[in-house]
Amino acid sequence: MPRGLVVAGLDLALGGRPVLRGVGLAVAPGEVVALEGPSGAGKTSLLRAAAGLLPHRGTIRAGGGRPALVFQQHALAGRLSARDNVLVGALGRLGFWRPALGLWPAAERAAAEACLARVGLAGLGPRRAAHLSGGQRQRVAIARALLQRAQVLLADEPVASLDPQNAEAILALLRALAREEGLAILVSLHQPELARRFADRRLRIEEGQVWEG
Ligand SMILES: Nc1ncnc2c1ncn2[C@@H]1O[C@H](COP(=O)(O)OP(=O)(O)OP(=O)(O)O)[C@@H](O)[C@H]1O
Prior knowledge:
By secondary structure, the protein is of the alpha/beta class. It has helices spanning 43-50, 82-87, 91-94, 97-100, 106-118, 134-147, 164-181, 192-198; strands at 5-14, 17-27, 32-36, 57-62, 68-70, 152-156, 184-188, 201-206, 209-212. The strands form two sheets. It has a six-stranded mixed beta sheet with strand order 5-6-7-3-8-9, with helices on both faces. Strands 2-1-4 form a three-stranded antiparallel beta sheet, with helices on one face. Strand 6 (152-156), helix 7 (164-181) and strand 7 (184-188) form a beta-alpha-beta unit. Helix 5 crosses helix 6 and helix 6 (134-147) packs parallel to helix 7. The two termini are 28 Å apart. Adenosine-5'-triphosphate binds next to helix 1. GO terms for molecular function: ATP binding. Residues 5-213 form the ABC transporter domain.
């Protein structure tokens, strides 16, 4: 199994209409690749298919099992603490019942705190997600992906709802995680300027196909 992400011959239709046609791309470990394209071009669909969330034809291979997904709206449970939101990343290896009863293993709790520290949120574990800023919430979502131990991170417009300063900080964090943890990161971005500054390569999606450039 290769590390990183390899997509080949990906066909995807939604509502009976073709959205992606024969898409191929690769993201190497340590690399940040930006996915750009007009609204409705299929960026979200491609990321969701790569995460195994949409039925498709073609090949998707991701090192380390299921890729982690980070969404624009970070999909946190607002009533839960930052740490409990991060712990959701461990569900795949713990099963349902112990976590449902709040019985997280001590090692996973410690690992969740370490992931929070890694994304710059040391000490904020007990705080309710609803009481965090937008940038902090996005960091919690990234910490959850780290706890999941994914080798591939798919981020769907992770900075769209952030101010420019926070947007740059989050993209700088993603780039650091690619470099230092060897993550392969595919990130859809609306701002070409940010793609230019933070991505190693840029892909453009248009009319169901993906081009380098
Ligand atoms: N569940 C669905 N059923 C039918 N069509 C869908 C569905 N979800 C998305 N589509 C269509 O598929 C196409 C691709 O949508 P997608 O959300 O992937 O685009 P996008 O590039 O992420 O757009 P944006 O930049 O606006 O977020 C669009 O034409 C959209 O209308």
